[in-house]
Amino acid sequence: MKQKFHYATVTEAINKLREQGFNLDFNLAENQLKSGEHAYPANEFEIVDQYRYEGPSDPADEATVYALASPAGQKGILVTGYGYSTDKESEETLKQLHYKYLEKDRQAE
């Protein structure tokens, strides 16, 4: 799916997504999205939009901001780093979310 906007910073992307109702702060743990005390099956969510940020010289500055939504109406934001900062199970969950995202884009064409 083509990005609707590109925000200059991670902070700007998060603020703008919050204005659009993406109010849950997600953390990825195995195959779940956790927000506070609540855990949601990650496979129930879809990527609505994503924003990639790459640091000019430090790989630790690289991040992706995901806007996620479920058919039940939960909307939230997941911010991930690249590479070594992601465990294997979380990496696989992100791959599955990306696959759904790409499939939806192909069907829209």
What would your notes on this structure say?
The protein is of the alpha+beta class and 109 residues long. It has one domain. It has 2 helices and 6 strands. The chain has a 6-stranded mixed beta sheet with strand order 3-2-1-6-5-4, sandwiched between helices. A hairpin with a 2-residue loop joins strand 2 and strand 3. The longest helix is centred in the C-terminal third of the chain and has 21 residues, at 88-108. The protein is globular. The model has no long low-confidence stretch (mean pLDDT 84).
Give structural attributes:
single chain; 109 residues; alpha+beta; 6 strands; 33% strand
Produce a short descriptive summary.
The protein has 109 residues and is of the alpha+beta class. Helix content is 28%, strand content 33%.
Q: Write down the Rg.
A: 13 Å
Class derived from helix and strand content: alpha+beta
Multimer state: single chain
What's the structural domain tally? 1
Fraction of residues in β-strands = 25-35%
First CA to last CA: what distance? 9 Å
**Could you describe the largest sheet, including whether it forms a barrel?**
6 strands, mixed
What ranges have pLDDT less than 50 throughout 5 or more consecutive residues?
A: none
Mean residue pLDDT? 84
Large-scale geometry? globular
Residue share in helices?
A: 25-40%
Q: Helix tally?
A: 2
Compressed to H and E, one letter per element, the order equals: HEEEEEEH
Write down how many β-strands occur, each being a DSSP E stretch of 2 or more residues: 6
Give the strand order of the largest sheet, numbering strands 1, 2, ... along the chain.
3-2-1-6-5-4
